[in-house]
Design a protein that fits this description.
The protein is of the alpha+beta class and 124 residues long. The chain has two domains: 64 residues, Winged helix-like DNA-binding domain superfamily/Winged helix DNA-binding domain (Arc Repressor Mutant, subunit A), CATH 1.10.10.10; 48 residues, Dna Ligase, domain 1. Helices cover 40% and strands 15% of the residues. The chain has five helices and five strands, in the order αααββββαβα. The strands form two sheets. It has a three-stranded mixed β-sheet, with no helix packed on it. It has a two-stranded antiparallel ribbon with strand order 1-2. β3 and β4 form a beta hairpin. α2 crosses α3. The longest helix is centred in the first third of the chain and has 13 residues. The protein starts with a helix and ends with a helix.
Length: 124
């Protein structure tokens, strides 16, 4: 993958905020530093960064995909109240065992996302 200053700006924005943002949110933040950046450029670069393993895509049912800077195995919580995605400390070993116990499949990867309330929203 050749160097691209737009791609570098996008990945730095995601790493700096440490939020699981949508493409539209990333676009809004990166445009502050680069007003001529297009939404199409953001989408193309996000897809390339996911394909090359520099970012992880998090599919949220009924919502826009989010993008994750943290590449180590971990799972996520989607808060239905504040709409944020956060890391969830779930044992990947136990999930791997559960997926491996499913008959008739050969899983290559999995993503586990819990929908509910984050600690902050659950306390309100």
């Amino acid at each position: 993958m050749n160097y691209s200053w737009q791609r570098q700006l996008i990945i730095e924005t995601i790493q700096k905020t440490r939020e699981h943002m949508t493409a539209a949110q990333i676009y809004q933040l990166t445009r502050k530093n680069c007003p001529h950046l297009s939404l199409g450029t953001v989408y193309r670069n996000l897809n390339l960064l996911v394909e090359t393993g520099k970012l992880r895509r998090i599919g949220v049912p009924g919502e826009a995909d989010r993008f994750d800077w943290e590449l180590t195995e971990h799972q996520h919580l989607y808060c239905r109240k504040c709409k944020r995605v956060s890391n969830l400390p779930v044992s990947t070993d136990k999930l791997s065992e559960l997926v491996a116990s499913c008959p008739g499949i050969k899983a290559e990867s999995f993503n586990f996302i819990v929908t509910g309330l984050c600690a902050e929203c659950a306390g309100n």
